[in-house]
Amino acid sequence: MKAIDCPCGHRLEGADDEELFRKAREHVDRDHPEMERTDEQLRDRVAADAYELDSA
Ligand SMILES: [Zn+2]
User: Fold this and answer.
1) DSSP of 1-48, one letter per residue?
2) Domain boundaries in the chain?
3) Contact at 8 Å (CB) between 46 and 24?
4) Distance from the CA of 30 to the center of ligand 1, in angstroms?
5) Max CA-CA distance within the chain?
6) What pTM was estimated for this model as a whole?
7) Are 2 and 16 in contact (CB under 8 A)?
8) What tens digit of pLDDT does each residue of 3-44 get?
9) How far is the centre of ligand 1, averaged over its atoms, from the C-alpha of 55 (Å)?
C-alpha cells in the first residue's frame, strides 16, 4: 500500500500510484474544488509525495 497526505490532514491510501491518483482526484473535487488542480498536477503530486505504507 502507498499513501499520500493532503495538506488538510486527510491521508489517502491506495495500492499503487494510479489508485492514489484516483483517490486524490475524488478528494480534491469533493473537499478542495477551489484548488482547481488538473489531472497532471495531481499525478505530479502523487509521484513526488507518495510514500510506502508498512503492510501490517
Ligand atoms: Zn484535503
Assistant:
1) -EEEE-TTSPEEEESSHHHHHHHHHHHHHHH-GGG---HHHHHHHHHH
2) 2-52
3) yes
4) 9
5) 35
6) 0.89
7) yes
8) 999 999 999 999 999 999 999 999 999 999 999 999 999 999
9) 23
